[in-house]
């Protein structure tokens, strides 16, 4: 049982780390001379422009930002609730509250990655003065980590739903 508990905690911390990296790091769309994410666009690895309300489709990027931040916060809250429930639940009860919060984190990261997947071309086309070099790019590791974090938070949420407290 102790090994299972250690695995679950390690898996949850890994999910949270993936969410932090995907949210913070600047690699959602990358190319040879540029990298861009939901916070800023950098060309020549030195010239960075912060994404602000002067961008067209800024509300779309704000939705991605907000849902990624919310997913990270929810994942951390779920971990703390799991630790509390570990000491408060009676034997045989399930970690339902932890599961619900973790699945909400899963939903948020899925929404963020889906919005970015769907709207990326429109954002780049409507802001060509900033994204002029980005036509030859591809999805970066932060974007991929967001989808991996989606899978991890989903699996973690389901584990908490199935898991029962034992001695």
UniProtKB/TrEMBL annotation:
What are the TM regions of this chain, as residue ranges? Answer: 63-83, 95-116, 141-163
Give one Pfam hit by family name.
Answer: PMP22_Claudin
Annotated keywords? Cell membrane, Cytoplasm, Golgi apparatus, Membrane, Nucleus, Signal, Transmembrane, Transmembrane helix
Q: Where is the signal peptide?
A: 1-16
Gene3D superfamilies according to UniProt: 1.20.140.150
Going by the entry's taxonomy, the superkingdom of the source organism is recorded as: Eukaryota
State the protein's purpose: Functions as a key regulator of cell membrane composition by regulating proteins surface expression. Also, plays a role in regulation of processes including cell migration, cell proliferation, cell contraction and cell adhesion.
Name of the protein described by the UniProt record? Epithelial membrane protein 2
- Gene that this polypeptide is encoded by: EMP2
């Amino acid at each position: 049982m102790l090994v299972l508990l250690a695995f679950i905690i390690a898996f949850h911390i890994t999910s949270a780390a993936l969410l932090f990296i995907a949210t913070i790091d600047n690699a959602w769309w990358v190319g040879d001379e540029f990298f861009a994410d939901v916070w800023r666009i950098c060309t020549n690895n030195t010239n960075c422009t912060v994404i602000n309300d002067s961008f067209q489709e800024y509300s779309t990027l704000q939705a991605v930002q907000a849902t990624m931040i919310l997913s990270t916060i929810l994942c951390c809250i779920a971990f703390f609730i799991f630790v509390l429930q570990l000491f408060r639940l009676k034997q045989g009860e399930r970690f339902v509250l932890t599961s619900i919060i973790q699945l909400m984190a899963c939903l948020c990261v899925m929404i963020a990655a889906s919005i970015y997947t769907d709207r990326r071309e429109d954002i780049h086309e409507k802001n060509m003065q900033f994204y002029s070099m980005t036509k030859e790019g591809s999805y970066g590791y932060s974007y991929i980590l967001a989808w991996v974090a989606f899978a991890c938070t989903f699996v973690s949420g389901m584990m908490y739903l199935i898991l029962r407290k034992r001695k």
